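Handoff note, outgoing to incoming analyst
You'll be picking up this chain. Sequence as last confirmed:
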Amino acid sequence: MKWSTDSPLEVSTIMERVASILDEDDMCVLGTIEEQEPRLTPCFFARLGEHRLVFVSSKEARHVINGHTNPHCSALVVPKQTQGRLVSVHLSGTIMFPQGRDRLAALTAYASQMKGKLLAVNNMHGLLDKRVFILEAERVEFVDTHLHHGRILVERNHSVIGNSMT
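Most recent structure output, in case you need it:
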């Protein structure tokens, strides 16, 4: 997967830090679109590769229904441990609902990362009745004032983007 940025930092440095945050934390605020308005929902997630998050929710959850209607979404992760600095990861992209082996692989990754953290994960059979979906990130906005004093944008598909000092 090719990522581009105009940050003075290397993309690999940025993405390694993003990955470590996503590995350390398991909760985000998921943003979906509901009747032309944003819907924000706290959700547990597990990282699936470099740029994907997997979620498991009830089939009737509003964010799941919204994802079927409009797949555009985003997730904001704010780490619990920031050591007195501003840190966040905002991923934007589309929701995919994997089927067959891809669904089982995503569900297995979620269960593996959540084991011991969520009671529902201890019963794999209970998870099989849930809706599994994946946020496939197209854009990552990263803030870590220890690395850089502005936000860092990283996008897929070789596009060059701005780095704003905020």
